[in-house]
């Protein structure tokens, strides 16, 4: 009677563990063993002993550290954007409130940087103290040379995110003996830094709208205009090209 004898040679196929960073698996102690001290039933059995190291995610601590740094950077960028838009909105609101009162009270200088640069078609000034002096001079000379002086805010807009444009019109009634009124238009450009603070103020497109030319009154009409009786018209004011002296 023939018996089917199992071969002592057998294949041991290791199980492959899916991992982000797999390591090669080493097999150790591959040797045939027998139950008891001999062959049982004429069949030799083979026991495979394998050592498999843990195949965890390599550098997990480093990945967590990088993720923490990335999250912190995203959070800082978000806070920086929020501060920028907050300061930008505050700057626009302050400009809207300051322009109508420009010739009557101190402006809000919290929206400007200490190294602000002011430029107009003729001058350039640097520094917040010089910037304050400009508006102090406008108020001082405005009270001296004008009976009434005010400014109208025409429009406020943003052509790009870091620029605020303001169009304005100045009206004035000068202190002169005759009736007069003047006005001129202009545009102010304010540039914002990454924190939403104004670091440059540029004035351009200033257009002077001249009033009609003043009529120079004769002396008698000027006296009549102030309520005094006029004197007879002197004869030496008359000229005649047809009268010749003989």
Q: What kind of oligomer do you see?
A: single chain
Residues in helices, as a percent range: 25-40%
Please give the number of β-strands: 8
Instruction: Give the overall form.
Output: elongated
Enumerate the strands of the largest sheet in spatial order, edge to edge or round the barrel.
Answer: 4-3-8-7-6-5
* Largest sheet descriptor: 6 strands, mixed
The end-to-end span amounts to 178 Å
Structural class: alpha+beta
User: What proportion of the residues form beta strands (DSSP E)?
Assistant: 25-35%
Taking Cα atoms only, what radius of gyration do you get, to the nearest Å? 46 Å
| H/E element sequence | EEHEEHEEEEH
Question: Which stretches are poorly predicted, pLDDT < 50 over at least 5 residues?
Answer: 10-14, 36-41, 222-246
Number of helical stretches of at least 4 residues: 3
Output mean pLDDT. 73
What does this structure look like?
InterPro entries: DUF2358, NTF2-like_dom_sf. By secondary structure, the protein is of the alpha+beta class. The chain is 26% helix and 29% strand. A 6-stranded mixed β-sheet has the order 4-3-8-7-6-5. It has a two-stranded antiparallel ribbon with strand order 1-2. The N and C termini lie far apart (178 Å).
Task: Please specify the SSE layout and strand pairing.
Layout: E1 27-33, E2 45-50, H1 60-98, E3 112-119, E4 124-126, H2 128-145, E5 146-157, E6 163-174, E7 182-192, E8 198-209, H3 219-225
Parallel strand pairs: 3-8
Antiparallel strand pairs: 1-2, 3-4, 5-6, 6-7, 7-8
Q: Keywords, please?
A:
alpha+beta; six-stranded mixed beta sheet; two-stranded antiparallel sheet; 3 helices; 8 strands; disordered C terminus; NTF2-like_dom_sf; DUF2358
């Amino acid at each position: 009677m023939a018996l089917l004898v199992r071969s002592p040679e057998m294949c041991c196929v290791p199980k492959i563990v899916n991992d982000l960073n797999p390591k090669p698996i080493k097999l150790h102690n591959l040797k045939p063993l027998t139950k008891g001290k001999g062959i049982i039933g004429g069949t030799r059995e083979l026991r495979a002993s394998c050592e498999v190291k843990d195949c965890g995610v390599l550098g997990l601590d480093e990945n967590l550290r990088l993720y923490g740094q990335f999250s912190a950077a995203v959070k800082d960028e978000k806070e920086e954007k929020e501060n920028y838009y907050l300061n930008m909105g505050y700057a626009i609101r302050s400009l809207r409130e300051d322009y109508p009162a420009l010739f009557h009270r101190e402006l809000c200088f919290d929206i400007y940087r200490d190294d602000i640069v002011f430029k107009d078609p003729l001058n350039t000034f640097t520094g917040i103290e010089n910037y304050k002096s400009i508006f102090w001079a406008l108020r001082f000379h405005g009270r001296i040379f004008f009976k009434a002086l005010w400014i109208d805010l025409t429009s406020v807009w943003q052509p790009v995110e870091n620029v605020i444009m303001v169009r304005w019109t100045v009206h004035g009634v000068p202190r002169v003996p005759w009736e007069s009124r003047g006005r001129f238009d202009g545009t102010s450009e304010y540039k914002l830094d990454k924190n939403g603070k104004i670091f440059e103020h540029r004035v351009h497109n200033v257009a002077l709208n001249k009033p009609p030319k003043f009529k120079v009154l004769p002396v008698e009409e000027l006296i009549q205009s102030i309520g005094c009786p006029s004197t007879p018209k002197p004869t030496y004011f008359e000229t005649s090209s047809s009268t010749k002296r003989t």
